[in-house]
Design a protein that fits this description.
Length: about 325
């Protein structure tokens, strides 16, 4: 399935965007991954994703519309959370060691959001000082993206994101409650409404297990399961979807080179090099800790991961003075 992380540059942590995605039709390009002769997976460029500077009659918008499905529950049929309660790591008892969480650090504020709750609500509207951020997660594509709401809408007015009920290739399409515009979670742009064609402003997220998160951020806040909604958070709402190859909705492209639910770490250079993407299978880090010095588009990157700790992160490997650096893992 999918994990989200971030791609940062140097000590300033200037954002690019990195995500981890399952090959479940979220890409319409066949060149996401290639295999070597021994079956090991190598990362390769995915080619061009849709240009996000679309106009109402743009061919790429028509391409997008062809992948839209009605998810069934309808608008707000899945209830997004708005400023829900949090608790300390020490007080959190509803999570198992191998449960996955999505984490975020904004300034000195560090928070974790468990898959158990995101599976049922898909969006958590939260605040970090004066910033309104929507943590979005789609269990059918395993993808989590953080949206800076005011920056994305280019407004000073506070608002929230909700679940529109529409999907693109099984992936989430949130809407903002100020303009009622729809945003594609993984394409990172507004696809319908007053703001159509506008790029989303994202924030870095990282996904890992509860066990690893506790070691990394023992003093962080954790989304409480006392959300005010009566949901069986101990049950995955889609049965055996995570492990079986079936899909709930049609997809526009089905890449056969990996199993449909294979977990990969992906980089999208949305704002620096529009449309470039690259994917790294988690199997590259199975049982080991390593760093991969690589390029995404023309950008030098380092992808660092630990199979035993179930985590992958990505950074720019170009220093502030423009020097390209090489990285290795010591511990």
């Amino acid at each position: 399935m999918i994990q989200f992380s971030s791609i940062w540059t140097g000590p300033l942590f200037v954002a690019w965007f990195v995500l981890v995605l399952s090959l479940e039709g979220c890409s319409s390009d066949p060149d996401v991954l290639s295999s070597t002769g021994d079956g090991a997976q190598n990362p390769v460029d995915s080619g061009q994703l849709p240009d996000t500077s679309t106009s109402p009659n743009d061919d790429k918008y028509v391409w997008f519309i062809h992948g839209i499905q009605d998810g069934g529950p309808g608008k707000d049929g899945i209830y997004a959370l708005v400023e829900p309660p949090f608790e300390s790591v020490a007080a959190t008892s509803y999570l198992q060691e191998d449960d996955l969480v999505v984490g975020i650090k904004v300034g000195n504020i560090v928070k974790a959001y468990s898959h158990r709750i995101l599976d049922w609500h898909e969006i958590v509207n939260d605040k970090f000082d004066r910033r309104s951020i929507a943590i979005t997660y789609r269990p059918l594509t395993g993808s989590g993206v953080g949206f800076d709401i005011r920056a994305s809408l280019e407004v000073a007015t506070a608002t929230t994101f909700g679940v529109s009920g529409f999907l693109w290739n099984n992936n989430l399409i949130p809407y903002d409650r100020l303009t009622d515009s729809n945003w594609s979670q993984m394409l990172l742009w507004c696809v319908n409404g007053r703001l159509r064609g506008q790029l989303a402003v994202h924030v870095p997220l990282v996904e890992t297990t509860w066990a690893t998160w506790k070691k990394m951020f023992p003093n962080s806040l954790v989304l409480s399961n006392e959300t005010g909604f009566d949901r069986p958070y101990h049950i995955f709402p889609y049965g055996n979807y995570k492990t079986d190859p079936f899909l709930l909705f049609p997809i526009s492209f089905d890449d056969k080179r990996l199993p449909r639910k294979a977990r990969v770490h992906g980089i999208i250079l949305g704002r620096i090099e529009r449309g470039r993407a690259k994917a790294y299978p988690f199997d590259l880090f199975q049982g080991q800790i390593r760093a991969i010095n690589d390029e995404a588009g023309t950008q030098p990157v380092v992808v660092a991961g630990s199979g035993p700790d179930n985590i992958i992160v990505s950074y720019s490997s170009r220093s502030l003075n423009g020097t390209r650096l090489q990285f290795d893992v010591k511990t």
